[in-house]
């Protein structure tokens, strides 16, 4: 799947507005790894996402740069040997610690369409994304 960054997203949305998928995960999350493998294996899903959405894969424990998103700036919050990006906390309903994987789907105007915590099966994701495109 083609993925981008938050900084690219601003430019892309001005040139060619599309719905956005933000996938929040961590490198240590075993469910995230299984899910990623299953989703990437589904060729129709990959094509659907690549053609109709902007996808951002976001590991909030590794991303330490400042991110501008929806007119606000978000920073990495160090905590001893680890930390978390405050954008992940802002997007998550659980403000102390997001549940992984977390999927945020926004329309082309950056309005929240869907919020999905935990494993997102390819068939369920395809159904959800096809509904988004019908709006």
Summed up:
The protein is built from 5 helices and 8 strands. It is α+β, with helices and mostly antiparallel strands.
Labels describing this entry:
Redoxin domain-containing protein, Glutaredoxin, four-stranded mixed beta sheet, alpha+beta, 135 residues, two-stranded antiparallel ribbon, globular
Number of helices: 5
**Between the first and last Cα atoms, what is the distance in angstroms?**
23 Å
The run of helices and strands is HEHHEEEEEHEEH
Question: In percent, how much strand structure appears in the residues?
Answer: 25-35%
Shape: globular
List the strand order in the largest sheet. 2-1-7-8
Task: Look at the structure and name the CATH superfamily.
Answer: Glutaredoxin
Radius of gyration: 14 Å
Q: Summarize the biggest pleated sheet.
A: 4 strands, mixed
CATH class call: Alpha Beta
The CATH architecture can be given as 3-Layer(aba) Sandwich
Into which percent range does the helicity of residues fall? 25-40%
Low-confidence stretches: none
> How many structural domains can be distinguished in the coordinates?
1
- Calculate the mean pLDDT score and round it: 94
| Helix-strand makeup class | alpha+beta
CATH fold field value: Glutaredoxin
In total, how many beta strands?
Answer: 8
InterPro entries: Thioredoxin-like_sf
Protein name: Redoxin domain-containing protein
